[in-house]
From TrEMBL:
Source taxonomy: Eukaryota, Metazoa, Ecdysozoa, Arthropoda, Chelicerata
GO cellular component, one term: SCF ubiquitin ligase complex
Biased segments, Low complexity type: 1-14
UniProt keyword Aminoacyl-tRNA synthetase present: no
Protein name listed in UniProt: SPRY domain-containing SOCS box protein 3
Domain B30.2/SPRY: 1-208
Organism, scientific name: Stegodyphus mimosarum (African social velvet spider)
Domain of life according to the entry: Eukaryota
Record-linked Pfam families: SPRY
Subcellular location: Cytoplasm; Nucleus
Amino acid sequence: MNEATSATTSTLTSNRKRAMTTQDGPPLHNFCTDNWTWNKRDKSHEVQLCGANLKTAHFHPNWSNGTAGVRGTRILNRGLFYWEINVTQRIFGTSMMFGVGTKKARLHIDSFVNMLGEDKYGWGLSHKGLLWHNGKWRQYTKPFRENEATTVGLLFDGIKGTLTYYKDGYNLGVAFTDLHLVKDELYPIVCSTAAKTEMSLSNTKREFGNLQDRCRAVILNLLRQASDIRELSLPNAVKLYLSEGTEQNLPSERPCKGATRHNYFMRSSSCGPHRIGSLKNYLVV
């Protein structure tokens, strides 16, 4: 066994041990729902957006002759964010990638490449278990099983400058560092070379920004739907602030076949559902 093979084996073993000993899922106790989606104006022409609030990206709907990507609407710098990508069972091809990048990262190439991380503007994980940045790759985890649906979680820490991946709830370890040093705005990005593949955005979370932000999340969790905000005995400015925390202003499009619509108001994992009546009594002025 040569030195390179030994190093790769050691990395894989370390990641597997970390996955087996790490509690499932990221630590999200101080997080609330974060409302963002894929950017319909910032994508390859080979990506179709559909589903609830454009959260499903359908790659190469007819056939593939290159690599296509789409950028998210969320700016990540200096924040703590988590999101998941649900990948359908069509996992195959040269490269299906998940990660982050700046506005300078390409979103379409007429060839089959590892596009996210081909240069200094992107940081990506491919379905073959490789991490890519600045045109260089390294082994990170074992390849995904082909033709088997999976969920990829990404935890971005803009304070520490790290990006950590999760696969089906298991922590794969820190993949990239020094992201807090990036001056340009960073966004979530996914891309694929494989035809008729789908990646759906879900479980988008962010850390509370301040006490006001936390209070808004709690209030919205008590409502059945965003339209109930109008019934609250609150100043219009406060109602507007509450509305800004919902998904009602996100772009919408006819759902993909078989897609299910998500609730369009913010949910906090720390609170259960309550009736609006109790909230109105509590907030009456």
